[in-house]
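input
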Amino acid sequence: MFRTANPFSGGLRPHNVNSGTVLAIRTLKRRPAYPQTYQPQLADKTHPTKDHSSFFQRHLKAWLGPRNVRGEYYRNKYYYPPQNHKPNYIVPDGNTVVDPSKPETNNDRRMGNTRRDPSLQPFPQNPYCKTALMISNELKDTIYQQVQQGAHIQEIAHKYGIKLERVEAIVRLQEIERGWKKEVSIL
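output
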């Protein structure tokens, strides 16, 4: 055992007196902050000692559900794409996404006027995970007419609570669609 001089005490002491605690602190693994409110049924480990899947991997397996022979998650309602061009988590019980009397905008969701069932959202525990709403054809026509009359796109985006890029895309697509209608390319 080597002895080293301690500059503070002036004496000699063994160099490995506190090295065990220092090593223990250095080798501690930092643990991620696990969500405390979300406690689903965890998926079972595939093998009690050989499965080294993490907390989040087991939660993902529990959310995805079991697989069939072809590797598809047959019980997960988000796995299969919808065939009618409407999202599965918005229209499961037949309610319309867009109310024809009043267009639902992003401001409605901020104020809490949402008609969605929170259990049907992709991440129900995360209130900040919002998907884009469908915009009715009447609102698209209104936006296009206002732009043609000289209104600024920023004002329209703020008025309806729609992102600026989406308003620009609506205007461009309306121009293309109206041009095709003039050329009788579409009916």
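quick obs: Residues 96-102, 107-111 have pLDDT under 50 and may be disordered.
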